[in-house]
Task: inverse folding
């Protein structure tokens, strides 16, 4: 747990960052930033590809890793990863 002084210092740093570089501050505070969405989309495409090839080849490892990749993509989309 942070002390009151540490919380006050962090607020001051945050206000300073928002005043001097609002774009960077917005990127840091936005959990679903553009870069994160692109990575999540790439994971989703990889997951679908792995699952489709796993179903065609009846390969358990492809299905397994496709499912894990789909869960990672879902976490990235929701911002919980």
Result:
């Amino acid at each position: 747990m942070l002390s009151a002084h540490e919380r006050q210092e962090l607020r001051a740093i945050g206000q300073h960052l928002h005043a001097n570089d609002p774009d960077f501050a917005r990127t840091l505070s936005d959990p679903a930033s553009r870069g994160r969405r692109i990575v999540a989309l790439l994971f989703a495409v990889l997951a679908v590809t792995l699952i489709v090839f796993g179903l065609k080849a009846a390969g358990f490892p492809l299905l397994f890793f496709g499912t894990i990749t789909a869960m990672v993509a879902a976490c990235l989309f929701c911002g919980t990863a």
User: Anything to note?
Assistant: The helical segments are 4-20, 22-29, 34-57, 60-78. The two ends are 22 Å apart (CA to CA).
